[in-house]
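Hi all, posting the design record for the shared folder.

TITLE: backbone redesign
STEP: 1 of 1
STRUCTURE INPUT:
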């Protein structure tokens, strides 16, 4: 069933079921790829020549089957595949995305040197108000945003980190350029919340869809904290998988 075709009104199959089957075929065939928005109700109703009540029943069946999600005020979207994001002692964003055979991308949203607030100072074992480097980074997999992360580093130890990061686009390489060859994860703490407006915009998701909040600390070989990070991850696209 393709655009311009109508349902069979003389058969025994309900109209909404035929519409569900037709849209499911379009999704499976890539007419509506993962993450894309289905046409508006009026367009689909005209396509199948049915009323909106019949169309909504078909969409509800697609939602129940896990093929689409309905976002209040935005429309109906094809459900995206949820990826398993590994969290281990050495968690590197690009390496993790490559491990699951996806294409990693990162975009620097903001970079600054600023006083450490209480939570950041505690994570880095600094006095509150100490100078820290903050890198705000949007992480993507196959072009779809999956995380916004605020990375904090002690400024006295990595004074030129922003310049090195801008040159390489990699936190690991930027730290190496500042003399840190390796670092490991000390802990990760995961909670959930609804996103702020800007977080929802960057993650391209509605504000009524929860996000995963991941607080973590990385340390050097001597166990000294070198990074405190606060990630907001799109729960509709990511599962966290903790590895030993």
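Okay, here is what came back for every position:
SEQUENCE:
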């Amino acid at each position: 069933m393709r655009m311009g075709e109508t349902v069979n009104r003389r058969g025994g199959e309900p109209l909404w079921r035929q519409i569900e089957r037709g849209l499911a075929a379009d999704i499976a065939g890539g007419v509506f790829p993962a993450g894309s928005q289905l046409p508006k109700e009026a367009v689909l109703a005209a396509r199948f020549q049915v009323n909106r009540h019949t169309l909504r029943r078909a969409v509800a069946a697609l939602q129940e089957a896990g093929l689409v999600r309905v976002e209040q005020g935005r429309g109906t979207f094809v459900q995206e595949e949820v990826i398993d994001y590994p969290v281990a002692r050495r968690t590197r964003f690009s390496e993790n995305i490559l491990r699951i055979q996806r294409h990693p991308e990162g975009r620097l949203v903001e970079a600054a040197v600023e006083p450490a607030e209480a939570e950041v100072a505690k994570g880095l074992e600094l006095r509150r108000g100490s100078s820290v480097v903050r890198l705000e980074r949007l992480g993507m997999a196959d072009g779809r945003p999956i995380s916004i992360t605020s990375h904090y580093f002690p400024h006295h130890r990595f004074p030129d980190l922003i310049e090195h990061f801008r040159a390489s686009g990699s936190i690991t390489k930027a730290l190496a350029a500042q003399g840190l060859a390796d670092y490991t994860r000390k802990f990760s703490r995961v909670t959930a919340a609804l996103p702020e407006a800007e977080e929802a915009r960057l993650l391209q998701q509605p504000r009524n869809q929860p996000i995963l909040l991941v607080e973590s600390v990385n340390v050097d070989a001597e166990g000294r904290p070198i990074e405190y990070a606060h990630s907001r991850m799109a729960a509709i696209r990511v599962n966290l998988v903790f590895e030993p």
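COMMENT: Strands lie at 68-71, 75-78, 83-87, 104-115, 131-141, 144-154, 184-193, 211-219, 225-234, 238-242.
Let me know if anyone wants the other runs.
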